[in-house]
Amino acid sequence: MKARVKWIDGVAMLGESGSGHGVVMDGPPELGGRNVGVRPMEMLLLGLGGCTQFDVLLILRKGRQDVTDCVVELEAERAEQDPKVFTRIHVHFVITGRGLDPRRVEQAIRLSAEKYCSASIMLGATATVTHDFEIREAP
Questions:
Q1: How many domains does the chain have?
Q2: Which of 12, 96, 120, 122 is deepest in the core (most CB within 10 A)?
Q3: Which CATH number does the domain housing residue 18 bear?
Q4: Residue 22 lies in domain
Q5: Are residues 85 and 17 in the same domain?
Q6: Which residues fall in a coiled-coil region (predicted)?
């Protein structure tokens, strides 16, 4: 896997993935940013959300669960001192579907957190990562 980050100006930069996609990142105005893109640490948190959602959906689909929507809400705290690593991350799944089995949802989230989600396992080396979920019945 490869990536490239090109400085634009100020503290804005363009991240380019090896698969050919780009994303603008920027810093806060108080550090010279213009707020034209997400912060790099926000990208890490978004990466965790995408990684674990991918796993959970794949596991539930293989388990023949009828998922119609999935939202992952993340909340993180960072250390006060440099390096300001994540110290706590909470991952909340809102999964909508028809007749979803709560045990299967819980198992899918646990498998992602403990076995499959590289981002969760990596960030878990410095942060306490917790998970919970709610199930909503689709109309």
A1: 2
A2: 120
A3: 2.20.25
A4: 1-38
A5: no
A6: none
Same domain membership, residue 14 and residue 25: yes
* Alpha-carbon gap, residue 47 to 89, rounded angstroms: 13
Q: Is the pTM of this model over 0.85?
A: yes
Do residue 49 and residue 73 come from a single domain?
A: yes
The one-character DSSP state at 99 is S
Interval 11-40: pLDDT, tens? 999 999 999 999 999 999 999 999 999 999
Match 């499959």 to its residue by tokens: 116
Distance of CA 81 to the CA centre of its chain: 23
Task: Give yes or no for a contact between 98 and 33, defined as CB atoms under 8 angstroms apart.
Answer: no
Band (117; pLDDT cuts 50, 70, 90): very high
Written as one letter, the residue type at 74 is L
